[in-house]
Amino acid sequence: TAPLLDRVSQLQVVEIDRDLIARLRQRFPAERLLIHEGDALEFDFATLKGEGRLKIVGNLPYNISSPLLFHLVPYAPLVCDMHFMLQKEVVDRMVAAPGSKDFGRLSVMLQYRFHMERLFIVPPGSFNPPPKVDSAIVRMIPIDFATVGADATVSNDEVFAKLVASAFSQRRKMLRNTLREFFSEDEIA
């Protein structure tokens, strides 16, 4: 928080931990650090929208990282970029290429909306106490669908999300079996 505040005139944070909120309020003036007290999984990030597009930065709690990333997807049109530190294995899934063992629902849902890039790995020794896993920093830049073209967009985001979830729900099953709800065998063929 402090290094970010060194570079911006005002920073807005979403925080649920009351002890951390109290420490932040003691350390930083309210006009420089605006604290939104609550759960990031329920927070309406559109309320942060000012004149420019949002830059969202965070060290995401590993236990809620995927649900939080899915929560942020609809806000992509309001965002300039997002940078997060996450468990390396999660970042590997986020940036995975089609056909790789890490490619799955998270890869498809995020790569449909964002250009994804793993920037670097953060080793356990960077933390005190050190965790038992590596972390990584990922950059997410929203895709500008106006420049991509209409044929690159889905017509219904909700159906698309459901289709992708079904497609990756049972990796060892035949894809035609997991997609029966959406397509007949002839349509799949």
Fold and architecture overview:
The chain has 189 residues and is an alpha/beta fold. The protein has helices at residues 2-5, 18-27, 65-72, 88-95, 105-113, 145-148, 157-167, 175-178, 185-188, and strands at residues 11-15, 33-37, 54-59, 79-87, 114-122, 135-142. The strands form 2 sheets. Strands 3-4-6-5 form a 4-stranded mixed β-sheet. It has a two-stranded parallel sheet with strand order 1-2. α3 (65-72) links the parallel β3 and β4.
Helix content percent band: 25-40%
Indicate the structural class.
alpha/beta
Shape: globular
Number of distinct beta strands: 6
Roughly what is the average pLDDT, rounded to an integer?
A: 90
Helix-strand pattern, N to C?
Answer: HEHEEHEHHEEHHHH
Uncertain residue segments: none
Distance between the termini: 53 Å
> What is the radius of gyration computed over CA atoms, rounded to a whole number of angstroms?
19 Å
In percent, how much strand structure appears in the residues?
15-25%
Count of separate DSSP helical elements: 9
Largest beta sheet: strand ordering: 3-4-6-5
Largest sheet, strands/sense/barrel: 4 strands, mixed
Descriptive terms for the model:
189 residues, alpha/beta, 4-stranded mixed β-sheet, two-stranded parallel ribbon, globular
